[in-house]
Amino acid sequence: MSLGDLSVGQAAAQPNRAGSAVELSGITKVFGSGNEAVHALGPLDLAVEAGSFVSVVGPSGCGKSTLLRLIAGLDSPSEGRMLRYGAILDGPSRDVGIVFQDHVLFPWATILENVMLPADVFSLPKAAARGRALRLLEMTGLKDFASHKPHMLSGGMKQRAAFCRALLADPQMLLLDEPFGALDALTREELSLELSRLWQDLGRTALLITHDIEEAILLGDRIIVMSKRPGRIRLDIPIDLPRPRDVNTAKLPRFVEIKQLARGLIFTPEQD
Amino acid sequence: MTGASRTSIAQHAITPAIYLALLIVWEGSVRYFNLPAWVLPAPSAIAITSKEWAPELLFNSFVTLRETLVGFLIALVLSLPLAVVIAFTTTTRRIIYPILLGLQSVPKVALAPLVILWLGIGNWPKIVIVVLVCFFPILVNVVAGLESVPKNMLDLMRSLRAPESVVFRRLRIPIALPHLFTGCKIAITFAVIGAVIGEFVAAQEGLGYLILISTAQSQTPLAFAAILLLTLISVMLFYVVELLEKRLVTWTP
Lengths: 272, 253
Prior knowledge:
The complex is a heterodimer.
Chain A: E1 20-31, E2 38-49, E3 53-57, H1 64-72, E4 79-84, E5 87-88, E6 96-99, H2 111-115, H3 117-122, H4 126-139, H5 155-167, E7 173-177, H6 185-202, E8 205-210, H7 213-219, E9 222-226, E10 233-238, H8 253-267
Parallel strand pairs in A: 3-8, 3-9, 6-7, 7-8
Antiparallel strand pairs in A: 1-2, 1-4, 4-5, 9-10
Chain B: H1 3-32, H2 43-52, H3 54-88, H4 90-105, H5 108-119, H6 124-147, H7 151-159, H8 164-201, H9 207-216, H10 220-248
């Protein structure tokens, strides 16, 4: 089953493949003030091309989650300018779907109700949204669990449901905040390959935050390596590996090469 | 019969067996030490008196149950909207909440004579006392519930640009529901106590009144019967609330 027949009408138009989905210039983020101020991020410039998959990797505490929250519009930067599809970015947008590190499913609602949350919030037509939700659940292997409560599902299944919810309203951009961080290694690999296929079918913009270098390379068109706090961009290179990618991609010499490069940068201090 | 079902029957039988043993020890001690009935009546004496006084006991139980339930429901109806207002408007919160918390610290029992003074000796003063004791546990728990929404769930709603009305309906109410039941379970047991206190201070009917007059006339077995019924009412009401909770709160947080 392909994802092509999944459009719900609202944002069915092909995404604008030219230009930037997100453009950040001179962004910094400082938490607190005075002596207790923590300089978390930047200054940093970043443009995410529409339709591309960008992986951001960095050591923990490098401000990569802060970066995602800024792009999501959940926080505002201390300095700098942010654009989303050419317009000033000053808050969350319904064209952006977010998958958080923990699934954030409502324990009192069924999986189907959880997946349909955006439709309820946006007041989308019920029947069409339900159809789309069921198709998403079928594609992610959760069809038989539509009427189950989240606590009856495994961690990987809950995260799949969270993906379905993020995709329900067919957002132009997907923000992924270490979506596999809480999962075991096997489930991680399986889910990330699944996501890779899903994204390739969808052709939407995606930004993945992760601390896992292999995951970043396997999924991305481009990898951005961040420095320790305050987070800055140390490396920004395209990942010129063929798609579709699978478990064997990790054995390619080019994969290993990019991995060594990124790993080297993460583990050596910055030279000013 | 299998071993497993035998154990399960044994487990179910153990609680009644202990109660039965306690009753036998009670009965035996009263007979052995020859205690007068006005000090400590034997269970058999209580049973006989209960049978003799059955109509009066039933009627007065009904009176106390009615005061308890009406007071509890009024407290529920009053506290829910107030909890919402307190949880959502900072000004109201700053002004009203400290006053309410202060009032909560006043022993409501001490207010009973005043309430009777103001409202006379009908049903209403008892109901007002029940409202007073029920109101705060429900209010405080619901306010806490409405505010205990996890930040990541709020972030999710914000990322969808959900209006506050949707956040309230889809997120805050379900989150607050278990807290509401915690408040109700505390309140319902307080409610019975509140009704009895009201009846102690001034009343012509109710189980509290019955205890008062029966002890004054050394009818101790009747007082015991009334106390037993009060306990039954209290336990029954608690389980009704718990049953409702199990029906409505079907998830594990």
